[in-house]
Amino acid sequence: MTGRRKIEENIFKTLMVVSTGVVIGCLLLIVGAIIVKSLPALKLSMITQTPKGGYYLGKEGGILNAIIGSLYLASGATLLALLLSLPIVLFLNLYAKKTSAFSTFTRFSLDVLWGIPSIVYGAFGFVIMVFLGLRASLLAGIVTVTLLELPIMARAMDEVIRMVPGALRDASYSLGATRLETALKVVVRQCLPGILTAVLIAFGRGIGDAASVIFTAGFSDRIPASLLQPAATLPLAIFFQLGTPFPEVQQRAYASAAVLTGIILLISLASRILIKKYARHTIR
User: Among 200, 221, 213, 182, which residue's Cα sits nearest to residue 91?
Assistant: First the structure.
């Protein structure tokens, strides 16, 4: 190796190490700051009780309504987004021509939708609510977050399915399988770890987003009993608590942030376990 090439390699190796250190440092700094600030308010009653009267003035209660509301909203939106995005990507990869204008335009549209700020989805969801005569509710929040998650999930799954070897599909066709059978029994099975990752990434985005539900899901101190009732979410609970002038309520906002971070951490760990489990069935 010449001296110049060795210098270039050392420079890029240093940049990679520094970049990795910055990412890990930022993560530790954010998690550490949240944990330190949340410790005074982090109690079992925070996650087992709904807000009592005067909760946002420093009285007793918890954020159980926001935890359940967030899980309802993100789970419903992720399921809807999966039901919509999986057929889209299977059609793009197994039925449509790869270089067709339709495929190119669909992928371009998904990329554009992915880059739209979530507050725009919130405003669009509000327009749909007004048009349909709906009030702020869990259903309106689920529809809005579905729109937010759909391009994320679809593009992530599209990239995974595009990596499936063509020979695998040809082998399936040669055995007499139809395109639908090949899609569901070969391609989906081969890509299951990647599809799970896409679903969990979209779920994490949905449960942590506040702007898209601020106009549509509403906020309530109660756990929603139906799709037409307003639902509290953790991001909005953090926003409202941090906006009060009471220090003890602001500490609860950090405790809520710690709970939300913990949920996302659990989702990440679960995804690692599931990916490791289903990766054993993929053909390499």
Answer: 182
Quickly list H helices, the chain: 3-38, 44-48, 64-90, 101-115, 118-132, 138-162, 166-174, 179-181, 188-190, 192-207, 234-242, 247-278
Blockwise average pLDDT, block size 10, the chain, 284 residues:
81 93 92 87 84 80 89 94 93 85 91 89 87 86 92 91 85 87 87 87 86 84 88 89 86 89 86 75 62
Supply angle C-alpha 275, 279, 284, rounded to 5.
145
Q: Is the dihedral of CA 111, 117, 120, 126 positive or negative?
A: positive
- For the beta carbon of residue 140, count every other beta carbon within 10 angstroms: 25
Residue type, 19: S
Total number of residues shown for the chain: 284
Q: Is 9 exposed, middle or buried (0-12, 13-18, 19+ CB in 10 A)?
A: exposed
- Over its C-alpha atoms, the chain yields an Rg (Å, rounded) of 23
Buried b (16+ CB within 10 A) or exposed e, 197-229: bbbbbbbbbbbbbbbbbbbbbbbbbebbeeeeb
Q: Which amino acid is at 278?
A: Y
Question: What is the SS3 string spanning 77-135?
Answer: HHHHHHHHHHHHHHHHHHHCCCCCHHHHHHHHHHHHHHHCCHHHHHHHHHHHHHHHCCC
- How far from each other are the two terminal CA atoms of the chain, in whole angstroms? 33
